[in-house]
Amino acid sequence: MYLINIASIVLQLAASVFCLRLIPQTDRRWPWILIFIGLAGMVLRRIHVLILMFLGAHDPSLVFELLGLVVSAMMFFGIAQIWPVFRRLKESREKLAESEERFRTVADFTHDWEYWRGPDGAFLYMSPSCERVTGYSRSEFMADPGLMERIVYPGDREAVAAHMAVEMDEQGVKYLDFRIVTADGNLHWLAHCCVPVFNDLGQYVGVRGSNRIIDNRKLAESRLENSRKQYRDLVEQAQAIILELNEAGEIVFLNDFAQGFFGYTLEELQGCRITGTLIPEKDSKGRDLDTMLQDYIHNKDAPIYDELEVVRKNGSRAWVSWASSQVLSEFNTPNGVLFVGIDISEGKAAEKLKEDVERIVRHDIKSPLMGVIGLPRLLQSDENLTPRQKEILKGVEDAGVQMMDLINKSLNLYKLETGMYECNPQSVDWLEIVRHAIRDLSTQHPGYSLFEIGLDGRPALDDDHVTSHGDSTLLYGMAANLLKNGLEASGGKPVCIDFQTGSPCVMEIRNRLPVSPEMTDTFFEKYATHGKSSGTGLGTYSARLAVRAHHGEISMHSSDSEGTVVRVELPGLDESGA
Predict the structure, then answer these.
(1) Distance between CA atoms of 212 and 192, rounded to whole angstroms?
(2) Three-state DSSP state, 171
(3) Please, which residues bridge with residue 194 across strands?
(4) What is the pLDDT of residue 577?
(5) Which of 141, 177, 251, 326 could bridge 269 with an S-S bond, Cβ 3.0-4.6 Å?
(6) What are phi and psi of 26, to 5 degrees?
(7) Topology alike, domains 111-219 and 238-343
(8) Which pLDDT tens digit goes with each residue over 353-386?
């Protein structure tokens, strides 16, 4: 019996200790103090019963004491089981409080104006930044949900009211830009975004909204729109072809003038490659226009100017002078090319008419010129003429021959430039053609120095030959022009002509004097001449045309130490010795 009472006392004391320990866990003082006092009273009662039993003054019932022990055990284990539950509850409260603190910190210190409306339209949360945006405090909005609609600029209220009517429909994200009038009377543009909010059970709990001041963006958009309008007005009203291609050479834009000029609409041409649609794949000079187009797109050194023939929708052709500039992306990489074109068909027609007239005049003047050349020859045979008169007649004859030579050269030059020259390749001796040109030049310029001819690193012999399939007329004209230039710049030294047989076959003409710096970059250009009163600037130009007609290459190198070297390379030439 004593042990039963002692066990009950121990269990009741332990339960009372647990009660004291639950005070900090539950943050509830008095409930647990009252339970502790009750348990302490029970302990004192048990001690009193134990003392009476020891003195023999009380003989308790065994069943009653066992029932008391069971109740004490149940109280102990019940409180012991409650203690970890309350501990977990406290930890959960602390974590929840920490999470709420982080949420409040993020929400309350957000720069944008954030809010949360419940399903009934009342504000459940309003960020303090509403005061920075509107001039009205959070408490004012929480107390008056209609304040948000009232601060909307009158011109935007209808759109905002329509938006608010569907804001609570639980469907997706919605956006709206509108103006508000702040408490101090200023006007601001807001970008509004709202999204429905659902809890973990999928229940709709309102809508979350965010408002941001976008005055700078709206100002930039206004300026951009004005700039676009000016651009559109400039482009659409321009009386010129304006055409934009992407990096693949596909058409992305065509102004109204260009659409009228070509006969296509923008929708018909968008995404089409310009080659094969508006311009042929190869022009009249045989140039690969598709390759040229890629060069235009990737060339950002400077604008490129060119004249190209275009094809209209009705099949007619026209000449257009193009200026192109590269279109760059925001990363400064090629993104396409912009073309501005002007119709020069009438100018081309006038130019062709002029060339036709000049060609006809050159052709028709040759007949009377034959008389000018032949008559002095006949008169020179007359024995009644004095030496002085014969000298004058010889001068007239030489002038006529020179004029005839110039006319023939100009006719061939015109044909080469326009692609009308019909190259007639035959088996020719290139070495003999050069010797022929040397003989003619030596007759016309007896005071000049001699020529030295080499073949594959040795002096050329009289019975050496260099045979080829070429046009003897073009090869002779090329050799005569280059040799004449070499003579005039020989500096009193022999002009060296070196042949190298093989594929390609090479002819190098060397003279002592260097080319002037003014001529270095324009040596083969048309009308380029320097320091020669009688020079036309056509000799080296026509020589280049003749070489290109044979699909060869011509180049020039000049220095003070080595003089000038003109190098001609012709393909497919072979040597046959005597």
Answers:
(1) 7
(2) coil
(3) 174, 209
(4) 37
(5) 251
(6) -105, -5
(7) yes
(8) 666 666 666 556 665 766 667 777 777 777 778 8
Question: SS3 for 368?
Answer: helix
Task: Please give the C-alpha separations between residue 361 and each of 178, 306, 355, in angstroms, as whole numbers.
Answer: 78, 30, 10
CATH code of domain 426-575: 3.30.565.10
**Nearest CA-CA partner of 245 in 160, 334, 339, 170:** 339
Closest by CA to 208, choosing from 198, 223, 222, is: 198
- Burial pattern 403-415, b for ≥16 Cβ within 10 A else e, equals ebeebebbbbbbb
What's the token pair of residue 88?
């977990």
Looking up tokens 């001041």, which residue turns up? Answer: 213
**Pairing state between β 495-500 and 451-455:** parallel
Q: Which residues contact 127 (CB under 8 A, 6 or more apart)?
A: 107, 108, 110, 112, 113, 114, 115, 138
Strand-pairing partners, residue 204, are 198
CA angle 229, 230, 234 (to 5 degrees): 115
Counting DSSP H helices and E strands in the chain, the numbers are 16, 19
Burial letters for 539-569: b for 16+ Cβ neighbours within 10 Å, e otherwise?
bbbbbbbbbebbebebebebeeeebbbbbbb
Listed residue (127, 130, 124) closest to 205, CA to CA: 124
The strand ranges marked E within 122-186 are 123-126, 174-181
SS (H, E, C) 175-222: EEEEEEECCCCCEEEEEEEEEEEECCCCCEEEEEEEEEECHHHHHHHH
Which residue type occupies 73? A
Q: Is the model more confident about 428 or about 235? A: 428
CATH annotation of 238-343: 3.30.450.20
For domain 111-219, give the CATH superfamily: PAS domain (3.30.450.20)
Q: Cβ distance 556 to 565 under 8 Å?
A: yes
Q: Percentage helix, strand, coil, to 5, in the chain? A: 50, 25, 30
How many Cβ atoms from other residues are within 10 Å of residue 526's Cβ? 15
